[in-house]
């Protein structure tokens, strides 16, 4: 009897507990639907209140919280996303993988809100103790890039390289070049040289560091070395010609070797590295065109591009070879047009920029800005194939 009584009591307790759990589930479901209704009625604050009131210890509710947090963040309501994720992180008894995910989301919210010091703290903790250090380190790299803290960006990139594949392996060399440029601006040329050595260790045959080494050589009375370095850059990275042209001209002048400039352009043409139109365009973009070889290239550009010929027709008499002065006027007029438009475009995301930047401000890729093609002197709408004209 005693045994049967115990069994009966046990069954009774189980049944009561099952009923309690059923009711709790039903209540939670009701509250959940209420939250969804508030969300649909565009009452996000009430919805948030309801959802945060739900216990977040079972998988279903946790998933809802994550979905809600990411919804708020996507809608730009970062303060609400932060509340959801803070709530999750603060729940006692949360599984470690859920806590990691909640901390990552919270750090992303802080990042999105521009609260970089908060984001950095969380990402550092995740990089040290989290299950996906690569995700945290990639964010830390971005935070330091945004703050132009190139030393830290390089350190985080190194750590990222040790645990995964960085999105842009060449970025570290650019960080050292950024540091070298800052040192040059402070006239600390020894430090600049040290950073450039680090850049070269990261990436051999690196156009940007070669340009900076050329700049150092020019500043330190070694213009011949600068000429050599600049010539090597444009042979290898022709797209950097607009940056190199004025530097090369100055170095050749300092070296007392005016021919070195023209020689270098002829070398590019002879070896098929670039054509005359491309050189003319780079010269117009860079603002350095007072040179016979370049003016010859401008003449060729006008002869081959009918849009440009129409545009500049008023400046040149028909049927007569333009003089150097006339070509200079045309180049100068074209430069004025160029300066009013985007001169560079990112080859990855397509964003336009009026100035040259080593890192794309939109997609954050390094060394992807290229001078836009000559035809694009015309406004977009007037270009053939643009769909509107
Ligand atoms: Zn881009």
Topology summary:
Layout: H1 2-40, H2 44-53, H3 59-74, H4 78-89, H5 96-112, H6 116-129, H7 133-146, H8 150-163, H9 171-185, H10 189-202, H11 207-219, H12 223-236, H13 241-254, H14 259-270, H15 276-286, H16 292-304, H17 306-312, H18 324-340, E1 344-346, E2 352-353, E3 369-371
Antiparallel strand pairs: 1-2, 1-3
Helix pairs in contact: 1-2, 3-4, 3-5, 4-5, 5-6, 6-7, 7-8, 8-9, 9-10, 9-11, 10-11, 11-12, 11-13, 12-13, 12-14, 13-15, 15-16, 16-17, 16-18
Bound molecules: zinc ion.
Zinc ion is lined by residues 346, 348-349, 351, 360, 362-363, 365, 368.
Task: Describe the overall structure.
Mean pLDDT is 86; it is low at 378-389. A three-stranded antiparallel beta sheet has the order 2-1-3. It starts with a helix and ends in an 18-residue tail after the last strand. The longest helix has 39 residues, at 2-40. The protein has 18 helices and three strands. Strand 1 (344-346) and strand 2 (352-353) form a beta hairpin. The chain has three domains: 20-156, Serine Threonine Protein Phosphatase 5, Tetratricopeptide repeat (Alpha Horseshoe); 168-274, Tetratricopeptide repeat domain (Serine Threonine Protein Phosphatase 5, Tetratricopeptide repeat, Alpha Horseshoe); 342-389, no CATH class. It is mainly alpha-helical. It is elongated, with a radius of gyration of 31 Å. Helix 1 (2-40) runs antiparallel to helix 2 and helix 12 runs parallel beside helix 14 (259-270). The structure holds zinc ion. Zinc ion (ZN) binds next to loops.
């Amino acid at each position: 009897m005693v045994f049967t009584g115990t069994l009966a009591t046990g069954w009774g307790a189980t049944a009561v507990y099952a009923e309690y759990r059923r009711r709790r589930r039903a209540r939670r479901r009701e509250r959940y639907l209420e939250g969804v209704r508030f969300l649909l009625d565009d009452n996000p604050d009430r919805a948030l209140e309801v959802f945060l009131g739900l216990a977040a210890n079972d998988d279903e509710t946790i998933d809802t919280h994550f979905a809600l947090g990411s919804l708020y963040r996507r809608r730009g309501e970062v303060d609400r996303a932060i509340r959801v994720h803070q709530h999750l992180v603060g729940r006692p008894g949360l599984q470690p993988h859920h806590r990691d995910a909640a901390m990552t989301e919270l750090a992303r919210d802080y990042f999105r809100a521009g609260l970089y010091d908060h984001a950095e703290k969380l990402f550092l903790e995740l990089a040290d103790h989290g299950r996906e250090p690569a995700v945290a380190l990639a964010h830390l790299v971005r935070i330091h890039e945004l703050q132009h803290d190139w030393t830290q960006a390089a350190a985080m990139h190194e750590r990222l390289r040790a645990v995964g594949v960085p999105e842009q392996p060449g970025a570290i060399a650019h960080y050292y070049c950024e540091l070298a440029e800052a040192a040059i601006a402070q006239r600390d040329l020894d430090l600049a040289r040290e950073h450039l050595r680090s850049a070269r260790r990261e990436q051999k045959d690196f156009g940007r560091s070669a340009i900076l080494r050329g700049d150092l050589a020019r500043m330190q009375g070694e213009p011949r070395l600068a000429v050599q370095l600049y010539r090597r850059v444009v042979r290898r990275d022709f797209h950097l010609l607009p940056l190199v042209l004025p530097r090369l001209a100055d170095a050749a002048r300092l070296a007392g070797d005016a021919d070195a400039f023209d020689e270098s352009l002829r070398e590019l043409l002879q070896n098929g590295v670039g054509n005359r139109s491309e050189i003319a365009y780079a010269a117009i973009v860079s603002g350095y065109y007072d040179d016979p070889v370049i003016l010859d290239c401008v003449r060729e550009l006008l002869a081959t591009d009918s849009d440009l010929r129409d545009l500049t027709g008023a400046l040149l008499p028909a049927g007569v070879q333009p003089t150097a002065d006339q070509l200079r006027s045309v180049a100068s007029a074209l430069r004025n047009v160029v300066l009013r438009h985007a001169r560079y475009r990112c080859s990855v995301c397509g964003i336009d920029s009026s100035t040259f930047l080593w890192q794309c401000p939109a997609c954050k890729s390094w060394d992807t800005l290229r001078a836009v093609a000559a035809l694009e002197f015309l406004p977009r709408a007037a270009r053939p194939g643009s769909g509107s004209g």
